[in-house]
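In response to the reviewer comment on reproducibility (Comment 2.3), we provide here a single inverse folding case reported in full, input and output, so that an independent group could reproduce the run without further information from us. The structure tokens appear first.
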């Protein structure tokens, strides 16, 4: 045990001599990722609230396709049931569940917006139109927040995986964080935007 501690001390001393331990950088970047994550969660919560109002508005349309509406309601319930905290960033399984739930909600919402094209009265409803505009704005905010989080995590992970700061990370428990996957990024960033001028549904551009 004593020998192991001596070796550890030597390694840490070497790390310090090779450019600093990076502890303060870990503190700074860890806080940056938490802040960026909080903004992602806030924007998803805003979207969830808008969807709730959107669903209530759509319910007033006679003969609207219930299956499509039900999928949105169920997907929203699933997404909001997942409790997210800063600790979620260090839990790969919880992070993947969060991604998957938000992806399912995005898909269900996209189908709903496309279906609305077949209901002229609903399209002309001012309350629905206002909600659609607010929803599109929120989707853009989500994209911006996600990009900031991705960048923050990338910067943090470079520090966590680089020598000699990776030694500091091991000693103080700073592990690499989960990030949004490429497949999930393509799915979840596809905002449910519809051309209400009569054209086909178009995915939002990034």
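Designed residues, in position order:
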């Amino acid at each position: 045990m004593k020998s192991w501690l001596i070796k550890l001390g030597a390694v840490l001393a070497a790390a310090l001599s090779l450019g600093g331990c990076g502890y303060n950088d870990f503190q700074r970047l860890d806080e940056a990722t938490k802040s960026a994550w909080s903004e992602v969660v806030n924007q998803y919560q805003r979207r969830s609230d808008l969807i709730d109002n959107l669903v209530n508005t759509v319910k007033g349309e006679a003969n609207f396709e219930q299956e499509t509406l039900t999928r949105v309601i169920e997907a929203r319930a699933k997404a909001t049931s997942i409790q997210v905290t800063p600790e979620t960033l260090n839990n790969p399984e919880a992070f993947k569940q969060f991604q998957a739930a938000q992806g399912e909600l995005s898909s269900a919402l996209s189908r709903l917006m496309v279906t609305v094209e077949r209901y002229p009265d609903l399209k002309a409803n001012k309350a629905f139109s206002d909600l659609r505009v607010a929803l599109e704005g929120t989707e853009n905010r989500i994209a911006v927040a996600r990009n900031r989080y991705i960048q923050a995590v990338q910067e943090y992970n470079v520090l966590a995986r680089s020598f000699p700061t990776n030694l500091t990370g091991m000693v103080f428990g700073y592990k690499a964080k989960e990030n949004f996957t490429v497949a999930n990024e393509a799915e979840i960033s596809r905002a449910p935007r519809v051309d209400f001028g009569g054209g086909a549904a178009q995915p939002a551009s990034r």
